[in-house]
Amino acid sequence: MNKPILRVEDLTVTLTTRDGIAPVLDNVSFSLNAGESIGIVGESGCGKSMTALAIMGLLPQPVGNIASGRIWFGDEDMVAVSDARMREIRGNDISMIFQEPMTSLNPVYTIGEQIAEVLRRHQNMNRRQAMVRATELLDAVRVPDPARRVRDYPHQLSGGQRQRVMIAIALACEPRVLIADEPTTALDVTVQAQIFELLSDLQSNTGTAVIMITHDMGAIAEMSERMIVMYAGRKVEEGTVDDVLDNPRHPYTRGLIACVPHIQEVVTDQRQPLVEIEGIVPSLSEFGQNACLFASRCRHVTDQCLAARPPEAQVSLQHHAACWHAEKLS
Amino acid sequence: MSFLITTAQRIVYAALLLLAVVILNFILIHLAPGDIADTIAGDMGGADATVMAQIRIDYGLDQPMLYQLWKYLWGVLHFDFGHSFFFNVSVADLILERLPATLLLVITAQILALVIGTLLGVISARRPNGPLSHFVTLIALFGYSAPVFWTGIMLLITFSLWIPIFPVAGMQDMTIEGGGLAHYLDIAHHMVLPVITLASIFLALYSRLCRASMMEVLGADYIRTARAKGLSESQIIYKHALKNSLSPVVTLAGLQFSAVVSGAVLVEAVFSWPGLGSLALQSIIARDTPTILGILFFSALVVVIGNLLTDFVLRLIDPRIRSGR
Ligand SMILES: Nc1ncnc2c1ncn2[C@@H]1O[C@H](COP(=O)(O)OP(=O)(O)O)[C@@H](O)[C@H]1O
Ligand SMILES: [Mg+2]
What we know:
The complex is a heterodimer of chains A (330) and B (325). Helices cover 32% and strands 24% of the residues of chain A. By secondary structure, chain A is of the alpha/beta class.
């Protein structure tokens, strides 16, 4: 169980923009064990999607490039393998669900065809077999009346149903790793809960390892064993979900946790004000400086924070935080 | 079911449109000064007023215009377009004899322009800054800015004087014996230059549009999904992207159908192609009103049918249009 299936090592990804080349991921390392679920959290623009796309080999072309680092899948370095091998892995061993269910399906093909296609590509199925399996998969992702729905086009489905179809596509070949990039952000709250529940059920049934990227701390707490907090292209904290949520050592993590609105059982006059982390994520051109990039928004900032990038302090065996003051913040 | 209803609707609209075209053409032609009596009188070297009046009575031109219009419409409904003064045959026969030649030219040019234009568009969209893409932009600009008759004349000069490998006039070689394959090959040989001339402008238009819409589609989320499935680049381009980027191209092709037909008139004149275009030229000069009206009707018919087909193809391509959303 504890053998890593995916290992990201010192990954640096650059984006070429008008202002120059910026490290959108800056020396990020983490690993994922077989069957495990880890969560990645962080505000928008912190590089969560870039992490996912880098693993998939789908960085935006031609601007996005892996500048250094390794992505080990088993004992293959996916940074170095051929395009042809990468296409064999994608959709078969590693799949991804995207943030935009409304636009991620091709409008001119039936959803049955879009599921069947990936089965034909990787599982050597013929048309009929693939369509039969597609119907079963639709049933598995709890789309009602799957035998009829396979012939529907995406525009005939709701956002939640489309995301279920995306999940069916991603899980069709029983991948070993599933990356879900904010799979519920674009959906209604009630649908969000259903999708999380579906993903977590499917994960426990299939034993697929999951990287769950989300804003939803509650979902992470429920689904994941470990979590990673990202800020401005860097990993700022990593640990078991319990460790990180109960004993956050990075001020940014603390801020994120404080931001989660708490539902009061009895509605009183003194409703807790909504909390936010003051300031905004620095822009891409400021990524990569040799300093703590959270310093401008941090209450604990010292000269040291501005002078050098904080190393990862080990809090416990599995718990690290990239903050100069991690020790003090217990 | 809704598919049948919308199709029926389109056909009714098309019929109404044709009716409007017939009425408008009729009125316009009759408003123009001069008629067949003038031509006949001219041919006879002048005629006095009583003879002129007699001619007008013979051809029914003395009746009120509304009555003439009604009679004409009634005829059209029965596929009777009157009698050609000039060629002295029924207009319907005259046109049906010439129509195939024009259709052959128009349809071949349109299909050629669509297929090659799309292909060039796709290829240049894949590498928008590559040399091929720039080349496509260049020929597109050239094809679009050069008038049909100029391109035609240039080709004509080139292939009649310097590289005489293609015939530059007519549709077939009367000296070729036997029917069958030899006959079709001969027609195809004659078609080369007129078709290239006619296709060039539209090819340019379609390739530019296809390039643009293809580039937009290649950035779409569902293309990223297709990549995430591990599909090959050619499956991504030709299965997932192309079908989506075709809609604007097909729409434009439908809109351009009338332009192709009127372009054909010019091309026929340049290459002496025995179609409706050259017939139109002759009958206008002869003030052969029934023939002109007939040609206008059939041109409109071709355009309307072309648009119906476009509509149909769009429905095949895009399920969102099919379901009426
Ligand atoms: N195609 C792109 N071209 C240029 N910059 C991009 C592109 N995609 C993302 N970025 C930038 O990269 C940074 C990280 O983006 P992303 O990984 O999508 O963040 P997240 O998923 O955490 O919200 C952001 O600053 C974003 O503006
Ligand atoms: Mg994102």
